[in-house]
């Protein structure tokens, strides 16, 4: 053994003891220095933190200035699946990292912005890093969502503003409720802002920031949850052990145990029972961590809400509605407002010290979520997409304007009842309401709505024509039109001829005193005949040829009479019979218009007409004979100069009420003539520059009756009239009973499509146009005057929405003048130059002689030689 070893060992022990004493003394000295000069360390830490925070804030502001915004507008049929929405969430999470390397983490987020200010039900925007614009512009939603670059929003200051930040409360690792897509998860939020009023300065906005959290933050959160779970399990174990011991001691001291010992002769002793306390169970990480157990698609979120208004109390009420709407997403965890309450006061984002931070995050888009706000992307399904087809959107004043009496730019549609129970008269823009179709059972309110619309249009200075075969609409509208400034514009064409002294107006479809084009007049009357009688080039070519040739001659006669200033000597449609059957009249007429007729027409009368058999004219003359046999139609059509001039009425903004008188064969022929003349008159507006064409609105009640007389004519109206600023409104009980051409044209071109109650089979064609939303059974059960309708506003279809039809006695109560109804009746007949029926009938009978006399005066001396021989029918 080395003799120096004991010495070296003692030396090492001495050095070790000295080093430990020195270290201990140094630690004590350092601790004393820290305790003495703690404020120096605190100041240094505060300075470093303040400098760091200033640098971070400057960098964050610089990064926030490079953000962009996109606005997403879904189509009416937007219906995404869960996979599409999930992919969108993945896009948003990925886009949140598209920032420069130097950008602070608070700026690395994507913001979903839901905004409602009364101009639209809900605007859906995405704001995020500028580098992510390309990634976010192409969505998994396809063409059903239009993505456009959004403009910055400049908000005006409101008097009352409330703010709130929402955090997740409940079980820390529990998911939010799995909300289905039908109905839309956004529906509660949209309902919460459905009664916003822009005039009151109402505003509500929700901002959801999505951020991919760093791994260390997730690990720290998991460690915290596991620690809490273990602590909770140990606490439960200790509580269980305590209760076990108490139960055991209670059993040993119980009276029952002592009685058993006395009866059995046993004495207590030897110690108590052996008690085994429960062992803490192993904490299952999957149960403790819940949705945080996996790293995939896990994000942190920040949910901020701001409501404002210029009216006290409305902002606070709106925030409460939004809070209730967010409760829908509550499950194991829920969205709760951050802060605490003390009596009537609440301390949160609206008060110091958190308000300043809220304002900074709101204005700059910074995301600094609470540590509890961890969610998986599938929990945010309802917020990762715009409103879908399953969302019921409210109608705001910006979507459907309110009706203003006397405004010529608005057309009354009905009464809309908002979600808050407030009612308002709604309208569409007159220039956009091109064609309207109303369907529903008799008495459902479609005619009442049309009358209210027509009366409102008339008081605004617009011109219209109301065609009602049954005349019921005229006495109904009479009191509301009986105003002095309207009387001179109203004309009544009534062919019902009721009362002891009936009066009838007059119209000459062949008259040339109004500057018509001769070929248009011939075509109009011929087409009316053909339409009503079902003629075409295949089924009745000879009848069409005969009628065309006869009308050509008579129109030429009238043209000659007008040039001579003999307007009262014009021929009427009843002179077709004389032209075809009276050789003398025919010869005089042909001679008088020899220089007017074309060579082809003259050749037909010379070469073809003499070869026609005697029975060739019956099919042409029979309808005319029926018109002549009816004294009303004979008086109406038998005058040389008619008062009815629909082209002049359109240009003068007249209000023309036409009552054909029924739906018999004669009435249908009159209707066909009127409809074809209207088509001719509208097309004649091509001679007027488009900007100078006065808007005009024909209203056709009982389309089934009208289209039975002129189906192709009515169809052409719905196809052509828009070009000439003439807009047709049609009403019918059954869409299916309309001719196919009419039905297809009016549904295709309708700006407004409305339906009242009716059978499910009757309303099914209308609801089919709406995608059966609402379904036929819903529409069929509507109350009287209730309508479902789709409207066109600013080029966009609104609805179908439920609207109450306006009732004249309520909406236009202030316009009723029942005391002036009789005066209006007289004025309307005077404007239409109505005369006693007997007088007009006598004049129509004498007209043949006047025309014959005129022809004799203007025919050359060779008339007798030019007489055409005719065999048979004379």
Describe this structure in words.
The structure is a single chain. With 874 residues, this protein is α+β, with helices and mostly antiparallel strands. The strands form 5 sheets. Strands 1, 2, 3, 4, 5, 6, 7, 8 and 11 form a 9-stranded antiparallel beta sheet that branches. The chain has a 9-stranded mixed beta sheet with strand order 16-18-15-19-20-14-21-22-23. Helix 20 crosses helix 30. The model is unreliable at 861-874 (pLDDT under 50).
Count of helical stretches: 30
Shape estimate? elongated
Classify the oligomer. Answer: single chain
Largest sheet: 9 strands, antiparallel
Report strand %: 15-25%
The average pLDDT score comes to 85
Short overview:
The protein is of the alpha+beta class and 874 residues long.
Topology of helices and strands:
Layout (H helix, E strand, L loop, with lengths): L4 H32 L1 H27 L2 E8 L7 H14 L14 E7 L6 E7 L3 H5 L7 E5 L10 E11 L16 H6 L10 E9 L3 H38 L2 H10 L20 H5 L8 E12 L4 H13 L6 E5 L2 E3 L2 E3 L7 H10 L9 E3 L33 E8 L5 E7 L6 E4 L6 H14 L3 E5 L5 H9 L2 H4 L2 E5 L8 E2 L13 H16 L7 H23 L11 H7 L1 H10 L6 H10 L9 H12 L1 H7 L8 H6 L3 E5 L5 H19 L12 E5 L2 H7 L1 H10 L8 E4 L7 H10 L2 E4 L4 H10 L6 H5 L5 E8 L2 E9 L3 H4 L9 H11 L3 E2 H22 L16
Parallel strand pairs: 14-20, 14-21, 15-18, 15-19, 16-18, 19-20
Antiparallel strand pairs: 1-3, 1-4, 2-3, 2-6, 5-7, 5-8, 6-7, 7-11, 9-10, 12-13, 17-24, 21-22, 22-23
Helix pairs in contact: 11-12, 14-15, 14-22, 15-16, 16-17, 17-30, 20-30, 22-23, 22-24, 23-24, 24-25
């Amino acid at each position: 053994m080395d003799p120096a070893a004991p010495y070296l060992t003692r030396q090492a022990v001495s050095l070790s003891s000295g080093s430990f004493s020195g270290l201990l003394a140094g630690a004590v000295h350092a601790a004393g220095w820290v305790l003495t000069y703690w404020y120096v360390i605190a100041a240094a830490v505060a300075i470093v933190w303040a400098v760091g925070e200033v640098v971070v804030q400057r960098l964050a502001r610089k990064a926030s200035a490079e953000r962009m915004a996109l606005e997403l507008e879904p189509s009416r049929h937007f219906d995404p699946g869960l996979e599409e929405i999930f992919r969108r969430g993945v896009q948003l999470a990925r886009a949140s990292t598209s920032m420069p390397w130097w950008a602070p983490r608070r700026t690395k987020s994507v913001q979903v912005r839901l905004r409602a200010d009364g101009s639209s039900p809900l605007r859906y925007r995405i704001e995020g890093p500028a580098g992510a614009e390309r990634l976010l512009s192409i969505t998994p939603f396809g063409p059903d969502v239009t993505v456009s670059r959004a403009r910055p929003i400049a908000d005006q200051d409101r008097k009352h503003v409330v703010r709130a930040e929402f955090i997740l409360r409940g079980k820390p690792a529990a998911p939010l409720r799995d909300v289905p897509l039908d109905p839309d998860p956004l529906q509660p939020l949209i309902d919460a802002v459905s009664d916003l009023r822009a005039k009151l300065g109402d505003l509500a906005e929700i901002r959801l920031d999505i951020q991919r959290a760093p791994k260390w933050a997730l690990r720290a959160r998991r460690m915290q949850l596991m620690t809490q779970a273990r602590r909770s399990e140990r606490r439960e174990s200790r509580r269980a052990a305590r209760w076990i011991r108490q139960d055991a001691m209670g059993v040993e001291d119980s009276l029952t145990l002592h009685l058993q010992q006395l009866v059995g002769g046993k004495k207590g002793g030897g110690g108590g029972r052996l008690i085994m306390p429960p062992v803490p169970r192993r904490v299952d990480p999957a149960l403790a961590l819940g949705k945080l157990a996996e790293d995939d698609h896990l994000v942190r979120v920040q949910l901020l809400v701001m409501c404002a208004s210029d009216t006290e109390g409305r902002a606070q009420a709106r925030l409460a509605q939004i809070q209730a709407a967010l409760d829908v997403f509550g499950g194991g965890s829920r969205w709760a407002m951050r802060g605490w309450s003390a009596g009537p006061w609440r301390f949160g984002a609206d008060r110091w010290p958190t308000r300043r931070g809220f304002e900074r995050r709101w204005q700059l888009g910074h995301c600094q979520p609470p540590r509890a706000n961890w969610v998986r992307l599938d929990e945010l399904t309802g917020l990762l997409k715009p409103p879908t087809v399953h969302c019921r959107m409210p109608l705001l004043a910006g979507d459907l304007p309110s009706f203003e009496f006397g405004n010529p730019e608005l057309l009354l549609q009905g009464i809309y009842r908002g979600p808050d129970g407030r009612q308002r008269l709604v309208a569409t823009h007159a220039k956009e309401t091109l064609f309207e179709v109303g369907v529903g059972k008799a008495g459902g309110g479609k005619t009442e709505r049309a009358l209210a619309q027509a009366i409102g249009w008339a008081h605004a200075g617009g011109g219209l024509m109301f065609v009602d075969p049954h005349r019921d609409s005229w006495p109904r509208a009479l009191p509301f039109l009986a105003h002095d400034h309207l009387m001179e514009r109203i004309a009544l064409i009534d062919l019902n001829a009721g009362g002891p002294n009936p009066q009838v107006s007059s119209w000459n479809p062949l008259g040339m005193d109004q500057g018509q084009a001769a070929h248009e007049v011939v075509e109009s009357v011929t087409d009316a005949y053909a339409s009503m009688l079902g003629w075409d080039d295949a089924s009745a070519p000879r009848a069409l040829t005969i009628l065309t040739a006869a009308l050509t001659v008579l129109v030429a006669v009238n043209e000659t009479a007008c040039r001579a200033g003999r307007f009262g000597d014009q021929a009427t449609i009843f002179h077709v019979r004389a032209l075809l059957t009276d050789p003398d009249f025919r010869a005089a007429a042909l001679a008088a218009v020899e220089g007017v007729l074309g060579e082809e027409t003259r050749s037909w009368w010379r070469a073809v007409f003499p070869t026609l058999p005697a029975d060739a004219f019956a099919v042409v003359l029979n309808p005319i004979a029926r018109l002549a046999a009816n004294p009303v139609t004979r008086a109406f059509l038998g005058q040389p100069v008619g008062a009815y001039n629909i082209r002049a009425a359109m240009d003068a903004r007249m209000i023309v009420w036409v009552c054909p008188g029924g739906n018999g064969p004669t009435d249908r022929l009159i209707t066909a003539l009127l409809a074809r003349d209207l088509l001719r008159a509208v097309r004649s507006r091509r001679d007027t520059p488009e900007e100078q064409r006065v808007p005009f609105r024909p209203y056709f009640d009982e389309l089934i009756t009208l289209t039975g007389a002129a189906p192709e004519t009515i169809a052409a109206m719905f196809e052509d009239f828009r070009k000439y600023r003439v807009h047709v409104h049609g009403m019918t009980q059954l869409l299916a009973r309309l001719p196919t051409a009419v039905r297809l044209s009016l549904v295709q071109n309708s700006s407004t499509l409305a339906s009242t109650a009716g059978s499910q089979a009757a309303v099914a064609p209308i609801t089919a146009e709406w995608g059966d939303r609402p379904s036929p059974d819903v529409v069929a059960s509507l109350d009287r005057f209730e309508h479902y309708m789709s409207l066109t506003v600013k080029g966009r279809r609104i609805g179908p929405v439920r609207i109450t039809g306006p009732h004249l006695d309520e909406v236009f109560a202030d316009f009723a003048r029942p005391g002036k109804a009789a005066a209006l009746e007289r004025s309307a007949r005077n404007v239409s130059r109505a005369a006693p029926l007997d007088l007009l009938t006598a004049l129509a009978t004498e007209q043949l002689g006047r025309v014959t006399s005129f022809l004799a005066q203007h025919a050359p001396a060779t008339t007798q030689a030019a007489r055409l021989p005719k065999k048979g029918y004379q």
